[in-house]
């Protein structure tokens, strides 16, 4: 129950204008993507200066710092948004606008540090035809297309989740905002620890086997927790979040190894474009996966009111959607178009002759998503109107 003194901070007509807020959020996300792409290009530039034997340590260190800094945001949610009006147990809570004000402060600091602290070596401007010619040669390399196909197809299949996750954690496991936020903080710490371990001892691991082991490890750990919760064997927020933290280890392996490849194949002068292309292809997989599993899940009884009823039929439907999710994640292992280690990408930069059969194959893989995207967008605007 929201206190009357705080009702002024809530826009109760938001559900009637959901489409507008989502579209505005898309434009806001553009700024983040732009900043992230440029910073990632800098990561590639610095990482390529390392000797081959230890290449990846700078990259790992940067992502470790980024992960640890991100943990601070979860602390705001843990202690500031755990009041009764947010589903928590504290007798106090921040107003809805306060977290946005807190989030604005580091953004201002980043802008100032970028202007006054960041050192950028000036270089002569390169004509667009010359730059495009160099980038086109990179685009024709076999390894770049292999990596792009891997990042899109593997991430699309691995990104198939389920809409039942939040209702299950809230109504069956009874996870409070404090517990959820603290789990995110601890999860980030574990994730950072994995990055450090890989940067210290795993730079020469087999990339394919590492990603495969990480994927299967996530499925085993997550499935163990989820199915015991679904079938009411153990329904406890500490068990649900605590044991689930173990999946940060395989997730960290999958994440950092997949980023090493981009550093190896980016050519000097095209670091930003190459890394941006790979990141874009990778990020495009997320919306496709989201549209797919939300469309599929709409045929099962996994909505909030269904979860609240906790009937046998609902439990089976939740089980089915998790089976679909895990099956898709296993299928992502069929798309490991990656070299085994860090050396082959530099050797395999050979020109790829555009075979019509290759284009046809790519089109056949991607085209089935078109109908799903169209149906989902039509459904989205229908329910939002």
Automatic annotation (TrEMBL):
CC terms in the record's Gene Ontology section: membrane
Top-rank taxon, per record: Eukaryota
Membrane topology per record: Multi-pass membrane protein
Keywords of the record: Membrane, Transmembrane, Transmembrane helix, Transport
Subcellular location: Membrane
Membrane-traversing stretches: 20-39, 60-80, 100-119, 185-203, 209-231
InterPro entries reported for this sequence: BT1, MFS_trans_sf
SUPFAM superfamilies on file: MFS general substrate transporter (SSF103473)
Gene3D superfamilies (alphabetical): MFS general substrate transporter like domains (1.20.1250.20)
Stated family: Belongs to the major facilitator superfamily. Folate-biopterin transporter (TC 2.A.71) family.
UniProt-recorded name of the protein: Major facilitator superfamily (MFS) profile domain-containing protein
């Amino acid at each position: 129950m929201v206190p009357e003194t705080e009702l002024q901070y809530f826009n109760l007509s938001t559900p009637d204008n959901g489409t507008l807020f989502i579209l505005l959020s898309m434009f806001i996300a553009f700024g983040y993507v732009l900043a992230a792409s440029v910073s990632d290009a800098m990561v590639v530039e610095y990482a390529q200066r390392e000797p081959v034997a230890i290449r990846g340590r700078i990259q790992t260190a940067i992502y470790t710092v980024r992960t640890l800094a991100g943990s601070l945001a979860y602390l705001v949610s843990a202690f500031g948004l755990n009041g009764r009006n947010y589903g928590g147990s504290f007798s106090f809570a921040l107003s809805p606008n306060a977290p946005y004000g807190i989030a604005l402060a580091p953004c201002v600091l980043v802008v100032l540090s970028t202007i006054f602290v960041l050192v950028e070596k000036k270089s002569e401007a390169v004509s667009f035809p010359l730059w495009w010619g160099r980038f086109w040669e990179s685009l024709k390399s076999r390894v770049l297309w292999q990596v792009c196909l891997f990042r899109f197809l593997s991430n699309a299949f691995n990104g198939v989740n389920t809409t039942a996750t939040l209702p299950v954690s809230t109504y069956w496991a009874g996870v409070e905002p404090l517990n959820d936020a603290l789990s995110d903080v601890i999860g980030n710490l574990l994730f950072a620890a994995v990055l450090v371990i890989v940067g210290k001892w795993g730079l020469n691991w087999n990339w394919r086997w590492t990603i495969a082991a990480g994927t299967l490890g996530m499925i085993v750990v997550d499935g163990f927790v989820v199915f015991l919760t679904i079938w009411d064997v153990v329904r406890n927020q500490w068990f649900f979040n605590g044991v689930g933290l173990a999946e940060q280890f395989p997730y960290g392996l999958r994440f950092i190894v997949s980023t090493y490849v981009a550093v190896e194949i980016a050519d000097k002068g095209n670091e930003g474009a190459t890394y941006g292309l790979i990141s874009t292809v990778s990020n495009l997989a997320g919306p496709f996966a989201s549209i797919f599993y939300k469309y599929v899940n709409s045929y099962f009884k996994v909505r909030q009111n269904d979860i609240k009823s906790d009937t046998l039929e609902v439990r089976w439907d939740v089980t089915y959607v998790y089976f679909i999710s895990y099956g898709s994640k296993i299928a992502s292992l069929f798309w490991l178009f990656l070299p085994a280690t860090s050396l082959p990408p530099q050797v395999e930069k050979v020109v790829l002759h555009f075979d019509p059969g290759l284009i046809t194959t790519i089109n056949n893989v991607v085209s089935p998503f078109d109908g799903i995207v169209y149906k989902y967008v039509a459904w989205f605007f229908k329910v939002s109107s």
